[in-house]
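In practice, a research group might receive sequence data for several interacting partners and want a quick structural hypothesis before committing to experiments. The following worked case mirrors that situation: the sequences arrive first, and a predicted assembly follows.
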Amino acid sequence: MYKETSTRSIVKALSWRGLGTIATSVIVWIFTRRLDVAVAVGGLEGLFKICMFYLHERLWDRVRIGRHQIEPVVVWLTGLSGSGKSTLAQSVSAALAQRGLRVETLDGDKIRTIFPNTGFTRQDRDAHIKRVGFLASRLEQHGVFVVCSLVSPYHESRDFVRKLCKNFVEVHVATPIEECERRDTKGLYARARRGEIKNFTGIDDPYEAPIRPEVVIDTREVGVEQATGRVLEHLKRYI
Amino acid sequence: MYKETSTRSIVKALSWRGLGTIATSVIVWIFTRRLDVAVAVGGLEGLFKICMFYLHERLWDRVRIGRHQIEPVVVWLTGLSGSGKSTLAQSVSAALAQRGLRVETLDGDKIRTIFPNTGFTRQDRDAHIKRVGFLASRLEQHGVFVVCSLVSPYHESRDFVRKLCKNFVEVHVATPIEECERRDTKGLYARARRGEIKNFTGIDDPYEAPIRPEVVIDTREVGVEQATGRVLEHLKRYI
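A structural hypothesis for the assembly, expressed as C-alpha cells:
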C-alpha cells in the first residue's frame, strides 16, 4: 500500500505543466521564429490547459466504463475429507491472485496445526468453523477475497458464517464418500474404520450436505481446472 | 477498492492528448492565423509530448519525496480488567482511521460474545489470545492496521502473537490493580472477590507484566488523548 502526499501531486503537476509549456513555446518558436508569439502561445496554453485538465478529470470521473468497484467474496468450500477441497481452494486462490486481487486462503487443517487444541466434537468443530468464518468476514470487510476449505459438516455453523459475510459463495465439493475413502490420501478413513479416530465425518459423524449451495462440484466428473472455472464463473460479477 | 482497466487508462490518455493538441493548434492559429503552422505545431507537439510524459513519469518514479510505503502495525494493548485498554484502543483506532488508514479494532471481550464458549482457564485464555493474534496477523499482511485490546496476562501467548506479526507494538496499560478495582466499571472485581468469578486476573490468576513493552501507559497519570499521542508517537515511522 502506497500513499502519495498531496504536496507530491501538486509539485508533480507543476513540473509537468512547466515542461509542457516550455516544449510548446520552443515548438512554436521553431515554426515562427518569433519569441513574442512563442511566449504568448506558451503562457495562454499553460493557463488554459490547467483548467482543461481539471474539467477533463471531472468528466472522466462520471464515466463508469472501464472502472468497477472490487467487492470481495468469501468462497467457502465444504465437503468430506479427501473430497478435493484444498486442491480446488489453492487453484481458485491462484486464479484470483493472478487477476491482481488480494486473496487469503484459509485451510481448516492448517489452522488446526496453529491451534492444536481444537478437537473434533460437534461443539469443537462448530467453534472452529465460526472462528475461521469470523476471520474470513473481517478480511472480506477490508477488501480481501477469502477462499476457505473446511469439512464444515453442519448447516448451523455454515449458515452462521454466511450471515457474517457480505458476499458468500458456498461450494459443495460433493465427491461421494466411496470415492473419498478409495483415495484416502491421508490414510484417515482407514484409521477411522479401525476406530482410531472418533467423530470422523461420514463414518461416525454426519455430513449435512448444503441445501442450496451456489456451486456443486463432483471431482469424479470434473478436473481441477474445470472446477476452478466453474467457481470463477460464479464470481464473475464481483471480479 | 477500485480497479481501472488499462483500456480505460489508454482511452483517457488519448482523449487528453487529443484535446491538448487541438487546444495548442487553435491557440497557435489565433496568434499566427496560419493553418499550416497551427497543424504542424499541434502534430509535432502531440508526438513529442507523449514521449516527454512517459519520461516525466519514469523520472518521478525514482523520486521518493512525498511517497511512503504504508506498513501496517499490530498494536497490542495488554493490562488488567478496567485498566482503560478498550477506551485507549478506540481512541488509537479513530486517530489512525482519520489519517485514511485501514483499521480494525479487535476487542477481546467483544470477540468472546461472538464465541461464547471461550473460558477463562489458562488454556482457554491462551487459545483465545493466539486466535485473535492470528486474525490480527492476517489482517496486517493485507495492509490493515489492527488495534487489539485483551487482558492477555501471559508472556508466552503474547510472544507467540509478536512472532506471528511483522510489526508489533506492545502497549502495557499499566494502571495498578488498586485503581482498576476502585473503578470496577463492570463490577467484575467485586464478583471475583466474592468468589463468583474464578481465574480472575489480578485476584486469583496472575498477570505477567510485559518485560520490554514498546509503550507503558498508566491511566492515573495520563488522559486518553495524551496516551493516544504517545502510542501514535511510536507508530510515527510507519504512518
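Before designing any experiment, note the following. The mean pLDDT of chain A is 88. The longest strand of chain A covers residues 168-173.
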